[in-house]
Specification:
- InterPro entries: DMSO2_SphG, Luciferase-like_dom, Luciferase-like_sf, SsuD_RutA_monooxygenase.
- Pfam families: Bac_luciferase.
- This is FMNH2-dependent dimethyl sulfone monooxygenase.
- One of its GO terms (molecular function) is alkanesulfonate monooxygenase activity.
- Keywords: Flavoprotein, FMN, Monooxygenase, Oxidoreductase.
- With 379 residues, this protein is α/β, with parallel strands linked by helices.
- It has one domain: Alpha-Beta Barrel (TIM Barrel).
- The protein is built from twelve helices and twelve strands.
- The strands form three sheets. An eight-stranded parallel β-barrel has the order 1-2-3-4-7-8-9-12, surrounded by five helices.
- Helix 1 packs parallel to helix 12 and helix 11 crosses helix 12.
Amino acid sequence: MSTPTTDQPAATKFAYWVPNVSGGLVTSTIEQRTDWGYDYNKKLAQTAEAVGFEYALSQVRYMASYGAEFQHESTSFSLGLLLATERLKVIAAVHPGLWQPGVLAKLGATADHMSNGRFAVNVVSGWFKGEFTAMGEPWLEHDERYRRAEEFISALRGIWTEEGYTLGGDFYRFRDFDLKPKPLASAGRPHPEIFQGGNSTAARAMAGRVSDWYFSNGKDLAGIDEQIRDVRAVADPLGRRVRFGLNGFVIARDTEAEARETLREIVAKANKPAVEGFRDAVQQAGSSTGDKRGMWADSTFEDLVQYNDGFRTNLIGTPEQIAERIVEFRRHGVDLILCGFLHFQEEVEHFGAKVLPLVREMEAAAGIAPSPFQPAVPA
């Protein structure tokens, strides 16, 4: 049975997927009023910031695949969004194996200064073998990719916080490396926040040891409880606090029936070859682990129409139903909800006007601390 955390929670933080990749957030021929270009995304970032979103996550793809024909590079796109906003924190997804940590540390420090401390990274251990082999880079087995990612994160943190950083690792080596200037530091923030994803045992252990945030694919309450428990089992003995983000695809409509009909239409109009191709590519990540607990290992066809299992979180219904669901996840230890939408600009506005105020009301009634990141304009 699922049980909530005993910690006194602070207010839920909200992030949205940056649609810097074409095709939208569902692999379906249903209409998606969104755009992967910079002008659209600049306006979207400003809207999200105004209505109360605190984070945005820029996706990373390097070549066309599974309905994503075009894609903008994540770090440069993130910097563009940072310079177009004032408070929004932008998380750039990066792949170890395609980045050298010293180079990324330098880029991150510069972006951090240019944005007054709002740059963050999401370290993606890698699922798309075709991108690596197309660029002539070696493809490591699952647990080796996580060993490399852990060393990558350790190097990033060391370079950002230490003088004369030295590392003799299995994947990266540094000798008396000094980064100047360091990123901006503040109370509770010694370096840019480091996020990671992954569902596997290796991913959970890595998060407990080195990451600031653990992103989960879409999950129900029991699923997220299991992941939080496993990560904390590693982090707590080390005296570390890891925060938890949960992916969820939001379908907020006037009635639950209308929201469910939208979901039915999304799945009915799925781009079947693209979804099945994506499934074939990613499910080896889960099945290649010894205990079969990897990301996407148990995802159904319907789950993968939203390629990070976003339907599983069940943020589908009326604003009241969605707000209740979010507050329940908060009680179970989820610190951040990462939102995807069908029609980004209008649905981010609708979420800020109709869902977020209800979340704050319900959190206040439950004794959850208020968020310092309130909308800059009336909802």
